[in-house]
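I'd like us to work through together how a protein chain folds, taking it slowly. We need material for that, and I hope you will provide a protein of your own picking. Go ahead whenever you are ready, and we will take it from there:
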Amino acid sequence: MTRKLYSMVVLAVILTAGISFFYYSDHKKDIIDTQNDKMDSMYGDIFVNLPEKDDQVRFDLIKRNFYTSQISDFSLVDENVWRRPEFYPTWERSGIITFTDHDFSRWGIHGYGFFPSEESWNIANMDSGDEFKFQSWFHTSWGVETWQGIQLVPIYDKELFDVSIEPNLFIIGPTYPQFDIEWTKLIQFKVTAKEPIPPGDYIFSVAVSAPSKEQENEWSWELLDQYTDGKLHDDIERCKSESTESNCDDLILQRQVRYVQGGMFTPSQLFNCRINVQ
């Protein structure tokens, strides 16, 4: 079984006449350090909720090995690597600017995606009951200030396969003005063959739908309670059961500012996996 990953930056290792290739050039590192200093001065530690890197060199090596397809089981990537925005390919290009040159005339409400957004697997054969697993990360877009309720729905040939996604119902947190630790999640896919699979290409994709009204109601009140430090707990508990009271209007508005349902926003291409059965 082999794998190819697309929509990723591929890093080449170059050796010339005893000169080693470094992941960052000194000039690029100086630029990033300057940007980080600017972000710290404006926002404090934007990564305060995220796990610390054990070691920068180890972080860069894991990132390089992943980008060059040397890691096929994504669950082997350390959590203090994949929870850091620096692991993701668009952070330097479009993530940092949401802090260093933020557009305060706009409010980041929706936005998410998969990384990687496309995967390809080659499989020698698939008999009835055979299964394989693969992973991707589902993350909030840069500059989003809300918590988003997500329900992932697999799209596939139901006559030939069973597909499960874990987790498939969850909340992802904001990426502005600080990163919530749940801004990104490792998603596990399991594909099981219902019968012997004929040779050919099979496409698996994912749609995002709205969680149930009951689930959304529960999440939105919990988030409001959590991020008002419990100061409004009694009022929230009353309004949860008597939301028609006029004095609940303000709390409901605050709740809507904190939480949105992710099904309201769907990119044109969210995730595709091509399985080639040989």
Remarks:
- Residues 1-25 have pLDDT under 50 and may be disordered.
- Residues 193 and 221 are 41 Å apart (CA to CA).
- Helices lie at 26-43, 56-67, 79-82, 91-95, 97-100, 213-226, 233-241, 249-258.
